[in-house]
Automatic annotation (TrEMBL):
Residue sites binding S-adenosyl-L-methionine per the record: G74, W76, D93, D109, D133
Top EC class, one word: transferase
Record's protein name: Ribosomal RNA large subunit methyltransferase E
Catalytic activity: uridine(2552) in 23S rRNA + S-adenosyl-L-methionine = 2'-O-methyluridine(2552) in 23S rRNA + S-adenosyl-L-homocysteine + H(+)
Organism: Sphingomonas desiccabilis
Keywords annotated in UniProt: Cytoplasm, Methyltransferase, rRNA processing, S-adenosyl-L-methionine, Transferase
Coiled coil: none
Compartmental location: Cytoplasm
One Pfam match: FtsJ
Bilayer-spanning residue ranges: none
Family: Belongs to the class I-like SAM-binding methyltransferase superfamily. RNA methyltransferase RlmE family.
Primary location class: cytoplasm
Gene Ontology, cellular component aspect: cytoplasm
Length: 230
């Protein structure tokens, strides 16, 4: 067996640990973003995905109200609190999340009927940014996994169009190939610009991409466009 590269940590397969979990642990131990997150106090390496997307798209510039869909473990909200400390942040996740100063957290399924109203009430006004790092639990069947995750993206888009202020933005995790044509068409109808990006912090072997929609047109403008078309 070939040895590990210099400086790379190897993990012995322990009793009760599968080879797959051993590979995951080894990857975590040798991931520079994981090490950096620990050093800089972020709860996950995902924080750097938002930092890199923000550097390119300026998502957090001047934001006052932000929604974090799929907040666990909290890395994205930590970034918002660091770069926009006066912003109100409301997050939701099925998983429990340790408190974050200045963030209202709901442990609830985002698809639950009461979730949108809870998030709106916590914000106290229209959102400047809705961000979603949600992904459905995988079942090992690529087509099914893709459909389930994209359904969450679609739900996020519907919610964003209900809570965003005119000019607001939406960013969400999608999968390989990006959002499908129907979803892209809906985003382009509601936002001035729609782009896909894969931040450097996203692992090369991962199928995840992010869709970034900016310049929400606002419900009044959309209504007037619809009436003009009819």
């Amino acid at each position: 067996m070939r040895g590990a590269p210099p400086g790379r940590q190897r993990v012995r397969t322990a009793r009760g640990r599968t080879a797959q979990s051993t590979r995951w642990l080894e990857r975590q131990l040798n991931d520079p973003y994981v090490k950096r997150a620990k050093a800089e106090g972020y709860r996950s390496r995902a924080a750097y995905k938002l930092l890199e997307l923000n550097e390119r798209f300026h998502l957090l510039r001047g934001v006052k109200r932000v929604v974090d869909l799929g907040i666990a473990p909290g890395g994205w909200s930590q970034v918002v609190r660091k770069l926009a400390p006066s912003a109100a942040v409301a997050g939701i996740d099925l998983l429990p999340v340790d408190p974050i100063d200045g963030v209202t957290i709901f442990q609830l399924d985002f698809l639950h009927a009461t979730a949108p109203d809870l998030l709106r009430e916590a914000l106290g006004g229209e959102a400047d940014l809705v961000m979603s790092d949600m992904a459905a639990n995988t079942v090992g069947h690529p087509q099914t996994d893709h459909l389930r995750t994209m359904a969450l993206v679609e739900a996020g888009v519907m919610f964003a169009c209900e809570v965003l202020r005119p000019g607001g933005a939406f960013v969400a995790k999608s999968l390989a190939g990006g959002a499908d044509n129907a979803l892209i068409a809906e985003l382009k109808r509601n936002f001035a610009t729609v782009k896909h990006a894969k931040p450097p912090a996203s692992r090369k072997g991962s199928s995840e991409w992010y869709v970034i929609a900016q310049g929400f047109k606002g419900r009044a403008k959309l209504a007037s466009e619809d009436s003009a078309e009819n």
